[in-house]
Amino acid sequence: MEMLMTFLFSFFCDVCLGDDPYYVAEWSEVIRSCPDFENTNYSFDDLELGSASGSGDDEGGLTLRGNLVILEDLKEAYVMDLQIFKCTGFGDEPMYSVEGDFCSSLKNTDTPWYPIVAKMNTSSCPIPKGEYSLDGLKISIDFAKDVLTHDFCGEYKAQMVMKDNIDMLSCHTLGLAVVEKYDEE
To answer: Which residues, at least 6 apart from 152, have a Cβ–Cβ distance to it below 8 Å?
Structure first.
């Protein structure tokens, strides 16, 4: 009887859920200011995030709609710091971190912020204050293929900080998740 129940459960799961799971990245719809930090240099308040589906070699990605507002010229020697934390019951666990001189990296296509810089049509500093439309921008998440697995399922937080030698100039967060899904038949 136990063997029959195991077979039926296995058959039911395969038929209803599909044979193999796949993993996707999901994110919050907005970028928020970090708690207890007033962003006076940059505003992402107008940006909306979405998902771009993909097929074949196109892995989908993150879409942006709205404006990035730079309230003060972005000058030389600013550092961009991007950190990813896994949200656990015990707090945020650091998972990934990259930091670099923002202005010297503007032409580097390997940086996570390159698609935004390219959409702004800039390749050197200073970047003048103003509103920069990011409508229609799609950021590939192909670089994250290796973490779109069962082992990495869970909730995450991305924190983006712009700083000079002394002060933090901006701090923004974005919620992320790696989710297991099944094809519906």
So the answer is: 23, 178
